[in-house]
Amino acid sequence: MDIIEEEIKKKYNHDIYVALGSFDGLHLGHMKLIDTAIKLAKENNGKSMVYTFKNHPLGVINKKLAPKLLMDNSTKIEVLKNKGVDILRFICFDKKFMEISPEDFVLNIIKQYNIKGIVVGFNFRFGHKNSGDVELLKEFSKKYNFKLFVVNAVEYNNEVVSSSRIRKAISQYGNVEEAKEMLPHPYFLEGKVVRGRQIGRKMGFPTINLDYNEDFVIPKNGVYFTAVLYDNKFYKGITNIGYNPTVEGKRLNIETHILDFNKEIYGERIRLYFLSRLRDEKKFQSIEELSLTIKKDKEYVKSQNINC
């Protein structure tokens, strides 16, 4: 997959079929657009392209409205490469780009690339102040001689799949199972392992603490069955997100007990995949009661399979 991050000086000779969108989560709806572009390119001996942003536009328009991230750029590249996309055009959305008119936006694309087809979603908006829509793009397709393909909404459980729906499922309800069905993989957080208060170790359940990036969606407080990816190997985990009410924690912690694991990995990076929600976080009457509950969680997790 070719990754283009700068303006190119000469026009691409290949016939290009491009999927346009912010693609902030690469969910089922996004992937339907991308699959359509790939299919069209193969049928017409062309090249498929995804034209998207490195950053979320709302982060430039109004930082207060910028949503939490579902996926970083390296993961997007990984997913798109595995999907079979030929070209990824990664744009940095800035104030200059924000001022581009809808027509100039289209012209900039078709002048640089030999665009034969454009694929967009049913609710696609583009150009200055989102003033361009699908109807305007239809007019441009006739004016500038390219084919337009509009993809309808994708539903899961009788509701439209969207990034905002997935964020809500994860952060407000802890419904990581539903999120998993709408994303290309279970939702995960990535970061370095840092030292915690080591209270779990004293109870016989040593844990690792994740130094998480607060720009990403954090699952609702509670206890989760997780898969820990470390050194290219998966391990089963029990992850608690919260303030450790039983031991009077003050900062939101993401703390994981890794089953059948006894290595010291402080300072090393892991991925933490959220597979299912086990229970709410609660304040126990004693450390003993907490320990008994963790034992039950552990027995349940042992019986489960990792599916990432």
UniProtKB/TrEMBL annotation:
EC number: 2.7.1.26, 2.7.7.2
Highest taxon in the source lineage: Bacteria
Pfam families: FAD_syn, Flavokinase
Root EC class: transferase
GO molecular function: ATP binding; FMN adenylyltransferase activity; riboflavin kinase activity
Keyword Cell cycle among record annotations: no
Annotated InterPro entries: FAD_synthase, Riboflavin_kinase, Riboflavin_kinase_bac, Riboflavin_kinase_bac/euk, Riboflavin_kinase_dom_sf, Rossmann-like_a/b/a_fold
Catalytic function, reaction form: FMN + ATP + H(+) = FAD + diphosphate; riboflavin + ATP = FMN + ADP + H(+)
Chain ranges passing through the membrane: none
Domain Riboflavin kinase span(s) in chain numbering: 182-306
Assigned keywords, A-Z: ATP-binding, FAD, Flavoprotein, FMN, Kinase, Multifunctional enzyme, Nucleotide-binding, Nucleotidyltransferase, Transferase
Gene3D superfamilies, alphabetized: HUPs, Riboflavin kinase-like
Known pathway: Cofactor biosynthesis; FAD biosynthesis; FAD from FMN: step 1/1; Cofactor biosynthesis; FMN biosynthesis; FMN from riboflavin (ATP route): step 1/1
Keyword flag Transcription regulation: no
NCBIfam families in alphabetical order: PRK05627.1-5 (NF004162), ribF (TIGR00083)
Function noted in UniProt: Catalyzes the phosphorylation of riboflavin to FMN followed by the adenylation of FMN to FAD.
Family per record: Belongs to the ribF family.
Protein name according to UniProt: Riboflavin biosynthesis protein
Organism: Clostridium cochlearium
